[in-house]
Amino acid sequence: MENKLVYDIHDKPKFGAMLVFAFQQLLAIMAATIVVPVLVSSSAGIAAEDAMSTSAALFGAGVGTLVYQLFTKFRSPVFLGSSFAFIGSMVAAFAGATANVYLGYLGLIIGAVFAGLVYVVIAAVVKIAGVEWINKLMPAAVIGPTVALIGLSLAGAAVKDVFSYGPVDGNGSYIMSGFSWVSFICAMVTLIVVTLCSTYGKKMTKLIPFIIGILAGYVVALIFTFIGIKTGNTNLIAIDFNVFKNLLVDGKVALSTFVAVPEFTFMNAFKGIGDFNVSYLATIAVAYVPVAFVVFAEHIADHKNLSSIIDKDLLTDPGLHRTLLGDGVGSIVGAIFGGCPNTTYGESVGCVAITRNASIATITTTAIMAILISFVSPFVAFLDSIPGCVMGGVCVTLYGFIAVSGLKMIQKVDLEDHANLFTVAAILIPGIGGMAMKIGQVTITNIACALILGIVINLILHAKKRGE
Question: In the beta sheet, which residues pair with residue 249?
Answer without folding.
Answer: 252
